[in-house]
Write a structure and sequence with these properties.
two-stranded antiparallel sheet, alpha/beta, single chain, globular
Amino acid sequence: MRLLITAGPTREPIDPVRFLSNRSSGRMGYALAEAAHAAGHEVLLISGPVTISPPSGVQLIRVETAREMYDAVRTHLSGCHAAIFSAAVADYRPAQVVAQKIKKSADTLTLQLERTEDILGSVRSQFAFTGYLVGFAAETENLIAHAQDKLLRKGCDLIIANDVSQSGIGFDSPENEVTLCFPDGQTTALPRQSKTALARELIQTITSAIQHRASSI
């Protein structure tokens, strides 16, 4: 199968030297790409700026901003059997990018922000994607409720939810602990483990779901 995977953070520029971003390391998305390739799938990895090397055998497209990731997904999504959106895309960006470095002068600085493109929310409604759609939900409270709400709003087949308020998992960590949320309301908790091991389990789950769907048609 052909899989599209997004990974890492985005950077939304404020001026030539500053940007808005988040703590995503890209490890989960890169682990998913490696596991998918190892399972024999063709993988397109769309990555925000990270410091880790891409897996061998994977087609890599590097992007910086949410708009660039949106454009890359729109361009390359066609023909994919599944799309896994693990990137931590910025929800907002500065409404204006200042051409020169902002000097430290006033005691306060106000930035006006605007919403970025809703990549996951566009996959069904705008890109007309009919393949297996997987999103991630990084939450700090009401994990399952927020994940199920996101699943329904975005038209996902699976949301992988993790509580990033817990120390030692999620952002900046080689380990993760997640709950799988499905459209029928069922959930499956996967215990804390390395992102490498978790990625193999997730790719197997996604592959099995796609094969089951194909056999039932």
